[in-house]
Amino acid sequence: MDFTELNAKYEYYRKNKHLISADVLNKYERAFLIEYTHNSTAIEGNTLTLIETKLLLEDEISVGGKDLREIYEVINHKKASDYVKKCVGENKPLDENTVKDIHELLTENIFPGGIYRNINVRITGAAFQPPPPDEMYVQIKNFYADMLYKKDMHPVEFAAWTHAEFVKIHPFKDGNGRTARMIMNYQLLLNGWLPVSVNKDDRLNYYNALESYAVLEDINPFVKLIAELENKELVQMIEIIRQITKQ
């Protein structure tokens, strides 16, 4: 995939992001977190609306009539996002313990997290099914080893591969999708790029792109999808910078 245009936008953002005030950046990050949390949990079936997610996370107002698990999924997503931000701030590379910590935060008060599955799992409606536990243990160890030499990839491609390969292995009994989207953004942030949010309404294209990798070993559709999402975030940040420079 040709990243020329995306790279140009990234370079403009990188060279000018210092112009954005802490207050404006904080507002952008808060709005992104609410959207990201809503979309990532909704993809997995959470029924909280965007407004309900905002009330819960930003205004700390309880949402009535919802299953307690759904409430925890949203609260936990913010906790995991904060943890990712902290690790990236410390310039900590993504490793096995960090991934387990992220999963544990995402599943807190729902079920014990950070523990690899010892059972077979199935993905409803998917042509590809995750490996049995004995094969999964080998694949997940290879996953962490592969991350070391795949860093030569373009950062967006590397982040997309991290997500696609992880969800293909499906190492946990549940919560793999949310964890995969979280570690994808971890890789983007660690390399200086912007985090992305997969819109819940685009989940069909998202699933199809992931299946292309799992079944056909073709990463390109998923990389293209993530690159488009990265482009969207960069365009928003560039517009903020241009509005500032006009003042």
Summarize the structure.
The chain has helices at 4-16, 22-43, 50-57, 68-89, 96-106, 133-149, 155-169, 176-190, 203-216, 220-246. With 247 residues, the protein is mainly alpha-helical.
What topology emerges from the helices and strands here?
Layout: H1 4-16, H2 22-43, H3 50-57, H4 68-89, H5 96-106, H6 133-149, H7 155-169, H8 176-190, H9 203-216, H10 220-246
Q: Would you mind describing this structure in some detail?
A:
The chain is mostly helical and 247 residues long. It has a single domain, classed as Orthogonal Bundle (Fic-like fold). It has 10 helices and no strands. It has helices at 4-16, 22-43, 50-57, 68-89, 96-106, 133-149, 155-169, 176-190, 203-216, 220-246. It is globular. The model has no long low-confidence stretch (mean pLDDT 95).
**CATH overall fold name:** Fic-like fold
Strand residues, percent:
under 5%
Please name the fourth-level CATH homologous superfamily.
Answer: Fido-like domain
Over all CA atoms, what is the radius of gyration?
Answer: 18 Å
Distance between the termini: 37 Å
The quaternary organization reads as single chain
Number of helices: 10
Uncertain segments of ≥5 residues (pLDDT<50)? Answer: none
The portion of residues assigned to helices is 55-70%
Q: What is the molecular shape?
A: globular
* Number of β-strand runs: 0
Q: In CATH terms, what is the architecture? A: Orthogonal Bundle
Secondary-structure-derived class: mainly alpha
